[in-house]
Amino acid sequence: MKSILFVRPEGGIIEFANPAPRREPAAEQIVFRRSDGSAIVFFRKYNPYHDRLGRFASADGAGGAAFRPAKTQAEAEQYARQELGFWEVDFGDHLDMETINHINEQIHAVQEKYPELKGAVQSLRTAKLEEGAYAQTRITGDGIIKLEFSSADYEKGLSAVARKYQQGVMGGIFPKGVDERSIIWHEYGHVLAAYVCKKWVSPERNFFEKGSAESKEFSQMRRERVVEKIWLEKAAQRLRISTKNLSAAISVYAKGDDAETFAEAFSEANCSASPRWEALAVMRASGYDRE
């Protein structure tokens, strides 16, 4: 049994206990040790199709048709259901077509680069969010993912969203070199982490019965940000800096927690013309860095 330890500056330890090499390993034990001495043990189960797709998918991996803007909201909502894989779509009553098409186009771009995320989110809608939040991803204990956009911001139009967001970029709140596209890519950084978490918990299922062992394990992993912690520890070790300094180097918003750090790195790596080393290191550590 070979064990690899990553020591967190805050005191916690992430330990990988890898079984002897096998052609098709059944599982990998992951032990996350808190600073208070307690530990959480998870078993990363392997999904051959997922692992193969994640390793070899390219920027045009989905192989789909080029995005075509919709002429009406009804057409756009139908496109989101039929082509982007959403169960429920509701853009509300006050978004203009430029804004609606922008949302669909960015989700299409995400799915072209990360085809395994098509259908990963079940609900797409506008909602009244907390002040300062452009969008949010809500993940239920049974694995359902909902993507919501701020009606207060997006009802003002895409240009208004772009101007406001760029002020945040200039102030260092968001990563350097990104624009309003990054809002959607950031949320899909959360989606990717949740997707990987699901695969670790149960390769055969996208959703779990409420109260089931799988549901409880999934919820616990998301609360502890286990997936993101592992990726950030790998990146920080390679860069020879602390995870705290890694987060601070990406953006002010990234300092919120490990999940926000990964989502910010994901958006910078995919939306900036010149992503920085820190963002690229995080993506390489995740195994989801793609051209």
Characterization of this structure:
- The chain has 291 residues and is α/β, with parallel strands linked by helices.
- The protein has eleven helices and eight strands.
- The protein has a four-stranded antiparallel sheet. A four-stranded mixed sheet has the order 5-6-8-7.
- β5, α3 and β6 form a beta-alpha-beta unit.
- The N terminus is likely disordered.
Properties at a glance:
alpha/beta
Write the layout of secondary structure elements.
Elements: E1 2-7, E2 13-18, E3 27-33, E4 39-45, H1 48-56, H2 73-82, E5 88-90, H3 97-113, E6 123-127, E7 135-139, E8 145-150, H4 151-154, H5 158-170, H6 181-201, H7 213-224, H8 226-239, H9 243-250, H10 258-271, H11 277-286
Parallel strand pairs: 5-6, 6-8
Antiparallel strand pairs: 1-2, 2-3, 3-4, 7-8
Helix pairs in contact: 2-3, 3-6, 6-7, 6-10, 8-10, 8-11, 10-11
